[in-house]
Design brief:
The chain is an alpha+beta fold. The protein folds into four domains: 4-94; 107-195, 2-Layer Sandwich (Beta-Lactamase); 200-271, Signal transduction histidine kinase, dimerisation/phosphotransfer (DHp) domain (Helix Hairpins, Orthogonal Bundle), CATH 1.10.287; 279-431, Histidine kinase-like ATPase, C-terminal domain (Heat Shock Protein 90, 2-Layer Sandwich), CATH 3.30.565.10. It has helices spanning 4-26, 28-58, 71-106, 125-131, 135-138, 143-146, 150-158, 197-233, 243-271, 283-298, 318-334, 366-369, 381-386, 393-403, and strands at residues 110-114, 120-123, 165-168, 176-184, 188-195, 279-280, 303-308, 312-316, 341-349, 352-359, 407-413, 417-424, 429-431.
Length: 438
Amino acid sequence: MQDIRWSAFWLALTLVFICLILWASRGATTALAVFGIGVSVYLYSHLYWLHKLHRWYKKPSLSTIPNGSGIWEDIFADIYHQQRRHNRSQAQISSALDRFRHAASALPDGVVLLNGEDKIEWCNPPAEAQLGLVLGKDTGQPITYLVRHTDFLRYLQEQDYSEPIKLRSWRNPEATLEIQLVPFGGKQKLLICRDITQMEKLETMRRDFIANVSHELRTPLTVVGGFLETLMDMDGAVPESTRSYFTMMHEQTSRMRRLIEDLLTLSQLESGATVPQDTEIDMSSLLDMLMHEAQSLSNGNHELSMEAEPGITIKGAAEELHSALGNLVSNAVRYTPPGGSIKLAWKTRGREAVFSVQDNGIGIEQKHIDRLTERFYRVDRSRSRETGGTGLGLSIVKHILSRHQARLEIESVLGQGSTFSVVFPSSRIVLKERKIEQ
């Protein structure tokens, strides 16, 4: 396409040249009249084609684009090619969007697209069935108008979408839904909804089975353990040649009883039958108890120390937190060789409160750290049995901390030691004024 500036320049130069010839032959009046008519015709032609372009732009279509003349022929030709490319791109985008919608409609999970204002842009049929939406009627409506569950509203406002939430369906009280928001693009979100009713029923059956079996085993094991203790304490009841067998039976019975107690505790925590009490915990007394327990377990074999920042306490269930923090302390004692050091600490970190147990024991390989809180997961099975572990301790700790909105952080280097830290959120912390001695 020619440069419109050069085209205008040569046209103006030609008109001036013609007018100069007319000036010399016909006079100035004729030359000026011809110059004025030429400029008027030039401007009119541009205004005419601009008017055509404006009318076409209101309803753009390849079939109605003007042909143009002169420089406008090139302009309209370029617009024609641009429009063809645009139409092809639009067709490809529409085709991709249709394929996405067909694929999303075939998913068993509910999918809802939300814009930056949390308004519904699109949803698939499972989302309509699970959340009670109607795509044709609810498009453009805020999701909060249609899903009014308080837990969902809190989840949406807190903007922490790392984990899904579970809700009882408001359409079917027997159904349980798992909802997760996935941010994408600018401020858009993808809401994924899954019916986990059957999974919840199976999980409930599993918990009930473990709880019932553990309950039934507790009594006979207590009886067997009691008879073994009685026989071992009676003079002459157990021959010296078989006493080692009785000792072994007593040890294994005690181990099974500890395992059953841990299973019952874990089952109770998983069922969420009770909500942890928000009573203020005397952290000074709790820390003293933990230190005393560590000293009893160590029996003088380790160097123990405590560093506590005064004036910090938390709200929660004292017995549960004593169990969780005591588990970390006992692990540090069991897995630190004699002569090692163990340091307990209680202090603030920003707006959070942290209880940590640091040791210079055997340490843990990085590949095991992410799985330490799994049920029955053991880094070294033989050593765990020797130390009396059941493989459920850290799993119980994880559930207790979850009930208190706390988290467990683990740092460890093999052969150098480990640090287990319990981090409590600011909502659980109670700061007390420190008394200043006169």
